[in-house]
Amino acid sequence: ETGVTQSPTHLIKTRGQQVTLRCSSQSGHNTVSWYQQALGQGPQFIFQYYREEENGRGNFPPRFSGLQFPNYSSELNVNALELDDSALYLCASSLGWAGSGRGYEQYFGPGTRLTVT
Amino acid sequence: DAKTTQPTSMDCAEGRAANLPCNHSTISGNEYVYWYRQIHSQGPQYIIHGLKNNETNEMASLIITEDRKSSTLILPHATLRDTAVYYCIVRGNAGNMLTFGGGTRLMVKP
Predict the structure, then answer these.
(1) With a cut of 50, which residues of chain B have pLDDT below it?
(2) DSSP character for A51?
(3) Percent of chain A clearing pLDDT 90 (strictly above)
(4) DSSP symbols for B34-100
(5) DSSP state string for B14-41
(6) Per-residue model confidence (pLDDT) at position B96
(7) Residue A52 backbone dihedrals phi, psi, to 5 degrees
(8) Candidates B39, B57, B71, B98, partner chain A, best to mutate (most A CBs within 10 A)
(9) What is the Cα–Cα distance from B86 to B105, expressed in whole angstroms?
(10) How far is B94 from chain A (nearest CA, A)?
(11) CA distance A20 to chain B (A)
């Protein structure tokens, strides 16, 4: 069983640029969630994708967008990068989502550390 | 989702049991209690979750009080590798996200 993988591991971008981060979900998982973790803080929910559709969004502006592909892998795109976007971006996969009526666990990848200068 | 309260930090001697408390006094009937931990520079790791009954797996035990207003995560024999930030999260069926608070920084000492 393959765990959640993310690429790249580290990335340095300049303010105003665009970035794409990638996530491969754990085998058999159909739901992917993205989180942003600033230094010294807990992860903050960005959005979730279930079967290629956005299935919930946190308090992030529209310049944060995503995709989920038929194989359930996912991308996070951030346009017009700002200095405050510097953070660890985490992807988590799960089988099902909260509305499925039972508790479920999310499995996290190692994250992509984005630095905006 | 119900808010949780955890101590900021705790120490534990290696080989002893680590008992991490969590208060969630506003929890509602359909909300689960989840525990995750995050070792430095890694993604959060799922530990355990429960609704009403106590739960045990290969990593830990989760004790939920009868009124469900608090819970305790127990690591029975803490090792140095258990040093991490431990997050207690309460989430119901309506929410899709995990809401992380500040967590408890557990330091296991030799």
Answers:
(1) none
(2) T
(3) 73
(4) EEEEE-TTS--EEEEEESSS-EE-SS-EEEE-TTSSEEEEEETT--GGG-EEEEEEEE-TT--S---
(5) TTSPEEEEEE-TT--TTPEEEEEEE-TT
(6) 67
(7) 75, 5
(8) B98
(9) 6
(10) 6
(11) 19
